């Protein structure tokens, strides 16, 4: 299925990786995770995150409270993405495997910004291909917009009414959430699975 997605359109989204560059500036950390943090969030880590209500790939309603029962790595993308999303979701899945092999109870989450095409059934196929414990989330346009706004995740849909193979520009950060802390860090896509796992483990150990 991913091979089908990959030929739908040319790779356009990768050029948009800097969409939220203002979020990440090298500098000192807030909270108790200074030894782990490689970036600083404008306004502090408390400026990102918040309540949301979405639908998972099984059709069940999920909120931020019910989701965050263990360390969670969230990524905003869409299943029909021709290149970046499968690569990033796979990177997060590999990092999850590394962490689980080391005894960490990690959960990868993929939030779709494409409610028109990404039904729970489509997401079920996508996340099951990526990782057996990956959770796919979708919802109404308003629900997704609210979740994206909470995490400062940028996306813009192109020519949705005229082309069934439309592309979506979107940011490509991954967000780490920890029970009892909520959002704690954002990661760029240029990290390897090993480096991502190492950084996530530091936050979990420090929590």
Percent helix range: 25-40%
Instruction: Supply the CATH superfamily name.
Output: Glutaredoxin
Counting helices, strands and paired strands, the structural category is: alpha+beta
**CATH class descriptor:** Alpha Beta
Radius of gyration: 16 Å
Number of domains: 1
Please state the second-level CATH architecture: 3-Layer(aba) Sandwich
Reading the helices and strands in chain order gives HEEEEHEHEHEHEEEEH
Mean pLDDT across the residues is: 85
Number of strands: 11
Q: Quickly count the helices.
A: 6
Q: Could you describe the largest sheet, including whether it forms a barrel?
A: 7 strands, mixed
CATH topology: Glutaredoxin
Low-confidence stretches: 1-29
Amino-to-carboxy terminus distance: 38 Å
What is the topology, as strand order, of the major beta sheet? 4-3-7-6-5-10-11
Q: Beta-strand level of the residues, as a percent range?
A: 15-25%
User: What is the global morphology?
Assistant: globular
Brief characterization of the structure:
Keywords: Copper, Disulfide bond, Membrane, Metal-binding, Transmembrane, Transmembrane helix. This protein is of the alpha+beta class and 207 residues long.
Fold and architecture overview:
InterPro entries: SCO1/SenC (IPR003782), Thioredoxin-like_sf (IPR036249). Belongs to the SCO1/2 family. GO terms for molecular function: metal ion binding. Disulfide bonds join 81-85. The chain crosses the membrane at residues 6-25. The protein is α+β, with helices and mostly antiparallel strands and 207 residues long. The chain has a single domain (2-206), classed as Glutaredoxin (3-Layer(aba) Sandwich), CATH 3.40.30. It has six helices and eleven strands. The protein has helices at residues 2-6, 64-67, 84-101, 120-130, 141-150, 193-206, and strands at residues 24-25, 40-41, 53-56, 61-63, 72-77, 107-112, 135-138, 155-157, 168-170, 174-178, 182-187. A seven-stranded mixed sheet has the order 4-3-7-6-5-10-11. A hairpin with a 3-residue loop joins strand 10 and strand 11. Helix 3 packs across helix 6 (193-206). The model is unreliable at 1-29 (pLDDT under 50).
């Amino acid at each position: 299925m991913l091979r089908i997605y990959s030929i739908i359109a040319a790779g356009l989204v990768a050029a948009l990786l800097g969409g939220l560059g203002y979020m990440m500036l090298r500098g000192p950390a807030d909270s108790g995770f200074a030894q782990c943090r490689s970036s600083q969030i404008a306004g502090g880590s408390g400026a990102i995150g918040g309540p949301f209500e979405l639908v998972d790939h099984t059709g069940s309603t999920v909120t931020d409270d019910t989701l965050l029962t263990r360390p969670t790595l969230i990524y905003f993308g869409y299943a029909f993405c021709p290149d970046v999303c499968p690569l990033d979701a796979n990177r997060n899945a590999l990092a999850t495997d590394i962490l689980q092999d080391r005894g960490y109870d990690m959960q990868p989450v993929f939030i779709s910004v494409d409610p028109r095409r990404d039904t729970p059934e489509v997401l079920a196929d996508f996340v099951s291909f990526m990782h057996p414990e990956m959770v796919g989330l979708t919802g109404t346009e308003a629900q997704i917009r609210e979740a994206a706004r909470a995490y400062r995740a940028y996306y813009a849909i192109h020519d949705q009414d005229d082309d069934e193979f439309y592309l979506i520009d979107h940011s490509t950060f991954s967000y780490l959430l920890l029970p009892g802390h909520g959002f704690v860090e954002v990661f760029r896509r240029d990290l390897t699975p090993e480096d991502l796992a190492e950084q996530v483990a530091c936050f979990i150990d420090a929590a």
